[in-house]
Design a protein that fits this description.
The structure is a single chain. The chain is mainly α. It has helices spanning 8-29, 35-40, 50-71, 87-103, 108-117, 121-144. It has two domains: 1-82, no CATH class; 84-145, no CATH class.
Length: 145
């Protein structure tokens, strides 16, 4: 049986920060905060705004580590990650997600956060598909396989 921690305050804080980041990126740069689109701009061929994209990605990678430094002694394990899945399963899962991102023309951050906020029908449908497939995957991996 898998345990899930219920962390409503941390989840709310994270959601607020993601929403603020998406709003600021749109307001200040006119860009949608879809991480796969941002990543594509820092891979060859480079996008004209590759430096802004690289800075955004650096922040997304570095901020959890900085937060962990400030939270030492306050929270037992501030940036914990554990997975019951073996590394090959994680790699295969990542490749499947990448394929889905390509087929869906975007990821959950672009469609789910920014697309739904803009009332994009395509994003609303894509996010619904993401959620149904996610729920089915969790059910199958935890209860069938």
């Amino acid at each position: 049986m898998f345990e899930t921690e219920f962390t409503p305050l941390a989840s709310l804080a994270g959601g607020i920060m993601i929403g603020l980041a998406a709003t600021l990126l749109m307001a200040l740069h006119g860009r949608i905060m879809g991480l796969t689109g941002i990543i594509n701009g820092v891979l060859p061929p480079l996008s004209p705004d590759w430096a802004m994209r690289a800075a955004f990605l650096a922040g997304a990678i570095l901020v959890p580590g900085v937060a962990a430094l400030f939270m030492q002694g306050i929270v037992e394990n501030p940036v914990a990650f554990a997975s019951p899945a073996a590394l090959p399963v994680l790699v295969i899962g990542g490749l499947i997600v990448g394929l889905g991102v390509k087929i869906g023309s975007g990821c959950t951050s672009g469609h789910g956060i920014c697309g739904i906020a803009r009332l994009s029908p395509r994003s609303i449908v894509a996010t619904g598909v993401f959620m149904v497939v996610t729920a089915a995957t969790v059910y199958l991996t935890r209860h069938v396989f």
